[in-house]
Specification:
The chain is mostly helical. It has helices at 3-7, 12-25, 28-38, 53-66, 70-94, and strands at residues 103-105, 108-109. It has a two-stranded antiparallel ribbon. The chain is globular and about 45 Å long.
């Protein structure tokens, strides 16, 4: 499935079926790659939460229900941690008091 098609997925039912099919035919790595490509994981506007939190949570529940070994559980938790870190970073970057972005003048950003 192409990235632009994945970005158009708006219902949990469609995404969850795609997750199940991908896991059945491939592996967890491909499922997580698919979820990343949907664009639901990171909110670039700095809310600190996934872009579509409800859909993201449903997807995580579905993936969790499919995996059965400790290695995959660990990989899923690492993925969720990465999503959380990225959202926290975008929140800090969009927060006006962030030390990560220093403005010297109105036209110069360091």
């Amino acid at each position: 499935m192409l990235m632009y098609e994945l970005e158009e997925i708006k219902t949990a039912e469609i995404l969850n079926e795609l997750i199940r099919e991908t896991y059945r035919n491939h592996n967890l790595y491909e499922v997580l790659k698919l979820i990343k490509m949907t664009g639901i994981c990171v909110d670039f506007f700095g809310s600190g939460k996934p872009k579509n939190e409800k859909l993201y949570n449903r997807a995580m529940e579905t993936v969790h229900s499919l995996i059965s070994n400790n290695d995959e559980t660990k990989k899923l938790k690492e993925f969720q941690s990465e999503v959380s870190i990225l959202n926290s970073l975008y929140k800090k970057l969009t927060d006006g008091s962030s030390p990560l972005l220093c403005v010297k003048s109105s036209s110069e950003i360091v």
